Amino acid sequence: MGRKWNNIKDKKAAKDANMSRIYAKFGREIYVAARQGEPDPEANRALKVVLERAKTYNVPKAIIERAIEKAKGGSDENYDELRYEGFGPNGSMVIVDALTNNVNRTASEVRAAFGKNGGNLGVSGSVAYMFDATAVIGVEGKTADEVLELLLEADVDVRDVFEEDDTVIVYADPDQFHAVQEAFKNVGITEFKVAELTMIPQNYVTLSEEDQAKFEKMIDALEDLEDVQQVYHNVDLRE
């Protein structure tokens, strides 16, 4: 299926000493979600999604509570949600989602991360049409057939169900994120190996060894930027 969800998450975690950078990104995202609606996940679906994602990365409770309390306290810190689209070598495409309190700084840093690593920034819409917004839920302890059956019984629409290593991965429309989780919770599955809202490419490209090395350097540079929350791409990365 292209992306190896568990490997991707483990690689991101290994990059950041003590997960501090990932925790900081989640803190910002939780704060923004909490400010956009009620600071209660049961009344704020966007916040609930972020908290479910944070749980799979073991984000400490203290960081979550601090971000929510900051939102409750009426902080005047504002962030803009931005999306950048660009290109790497040989048909590779990249989407970058950011939260920033300084649009000019972020635009400059993202452009530089592309340009210094053999890529270039495109215009809005130049890449996103080749990706599908997707809810990705992963669980252990079930087979793909068992998961498909329980989702059908719960009348939940999904795009795909498949096994990856010891995890069953479900692809669904983003608005089915909570429905998929509730179907699992109703049969006693409350822990999720993967819980993401992401962008899945409609087609993957394979790069030469040299181009892949350049591409990975570009992706690392983008992910290292403080304002960048998520980076999506269409490259089938070889180990």
TrEMBL record:
Top-level taxon: Bacteria
GO cellular component: cytosol
A GO molecular-function descriptor: DNA binding
Domain TACO1/YebC-like N-terminal: 3-74
Keyword Acetylation included in the entry's annotation: no
Major localisation: cytoplasm
Compartments where located: Cytoplasm
One Pfam entry name: Transcrip_reg
Domain annotation TACO1/YebC-like second and third: ranges: 79-235
BP terms from Gene Ontology: regulation of DNA-templated transcription
UniProt keyword list: Cytoplasm, DNA-binding, Transcription, Transcription regulation
Record-stated family: Belongs to the TACO1 family. YeeN subfamily.
Protein name: Probable transcriptional regulatory protein HMPREF1015_01214
Organism: Bacillus smithii 7_3_47FAA
